Amino acid sequence: MSGYEYLILTVLDKYMPKTGRMPFTVKDLKYRMQYKKHGKWQLCMDITTLKKTLEDLESHKCIKVSDPTPTQCKKKNPTYDDKVIKLTRGLKDGLKDIDMDKYIVFYYSVARAFICHQITQNEYKVYLCILNNYKNSKSCTLEKMNIILNMEERNILRSIQSLELASLLRVDRLPPNDKGKKYNMYYPIDTDRWDKDTDIELDSDTVSGLNITLIA
Predict the structure, then answer these.
(1) pTM
(2) If DSSP states are collapsed to H, E and C, what string results for 38-97?
(3) Res. 190 pLDDT band, cuts 50 70 90
(4) Which of 8, 40, 73, 173 shows a CA-CA span of 20 to 30 A to 85?
(5) What is the Cα–Cα distance from 85 to 43, expressed in whole angstroms?
(6) What is the mean pLDDT of residues 128-148?
(7) DSSP assignment string, 130-145
């Protein structure tokens, strides 16, 4: 799965209403994936990429996107924004695809940094991989991440450096062991550095009425 797919699952996991009484449409998703650039709010990906990512998530059976019923949408000709999103696999299930076999809780600031283009898709996946191992008390070497993520070690190292620069990861560089091998310790950081670029409050009339069932 791509970094964009994990991002959308993250946003749905955080913002989709848990009561089942409120809807979550494509418009609602787009609203939560905006960032401010030069004083204007814009979507963090182009609409073609968004549609493809939603289609990929459907093919992975993570979500279901359907047309609204007349009760759910009063428009005579509903648009793509009016389509309804339902979760069929939760974030914890989607994360299994990168060897994350337990539910993890992580700082949403990393998703904010992704939304406002401070980190890339690969850097987001590296963060999730490190965090999973950290939460489950597993070692997280470049060799292991290379196997899990199918990513070259030099690109993993660059991703770690970018996450550190983005204030999302603290890296403690330890002295070499008896065999001269170097190790790092990674600690996730909660930061408000990207809040001003991504923090949008939904208006009371932004989300329309739909009964949503969370299956996973």
Answers:
(1) 0.77
(2) CCEEEECCCHHHHHHHHHHHHHCCCEEEECCCCCCCCCCCCCHHHCEEEECCCHHHHHHH
(3) confident
(4) 40
(5) 18
(6) 83
(7) HHHHHHTT----HHHH
d(C-alpha 213, C-alpha 216), whole Å: 9
Q: Report, as an integer, the average pLDDT of 131-145.
A: 81
Nearest to residue 95, comparing CAs of 170, 163, 3, 190?
3
Exposure pattern of 37-57 as b/e (b: 16+ CB <10 Å)?
Answer: eeeeeeebbeeeebeebbebb
Tell me what pLDDT residue 49 has.
96
Identify the CA nearest to 127 among candidates 74, 66, 188. Answer: 188
How far apart are the C-alpha atoms of 33 and 42, rounded to whole Å?
8
- Cα first-last separation, the chain: 18
123, two tokens: 């850097």
At residue 199, φ and ψ (nearest 5 deg) are -80, 95
8 Å CB contact between 13 and 90 = yes
Chain-wide mean pLDDT for the chain? 80
- In one-letter notation, the amino acid at residue 162 is S
